[in-house]
Amino acid sequence: MHGRQGGRGQGGPGGGPRGAGRRGPRPRRIQRFLEPVVLLALHSAPAHGYGLLEELRALGLEDYPADISAIYRALNSLEEAGMLTSRQESAESGGPPRRVYALTPQGDEYLRAWAEDLRETARLLNRYIAAYDAHRQSHAADEPSPGQPGGQE
What we know:
Layout (H helix, E strand, L loop, with lengths): L33 H11 L4 H10 L9 H13 L3 E6 L8 E6 L1 H34 L15
Antiparallel strand pairs: 1-2
Helix pairs in contact: 1-4, 2-3
């Protein structure tokens, strides 16, 4: 259902070719991850695109690389797939009418499938991180310390 995409370059977080942002490493992009985020945001109440951008922040995803055009592309794709419906909202605020999106039962099921898939991905990633940490710890004695030949000063 999802995978990794490299964005502009390949590599890992930090100083690798992916680089680090001004505030440190940015999270890796999970292909199509905006779909479950949009579905989750719409699970509680219908909303328009800019409202969903605010919802990303409320969900703690302010550092996830998404802009309003990506949100509208995801909304259009999900609506075409039957996961969402939309309606034109009357212009009570004095501005132009807005398109408001709502979750369908099919979208709710798709959201559940994403959650299960992400749980499995998190489980695998946690196992990898634990194995990496154990490996680093077991080899810590092999690494030269500062002041020893090969160590950093």
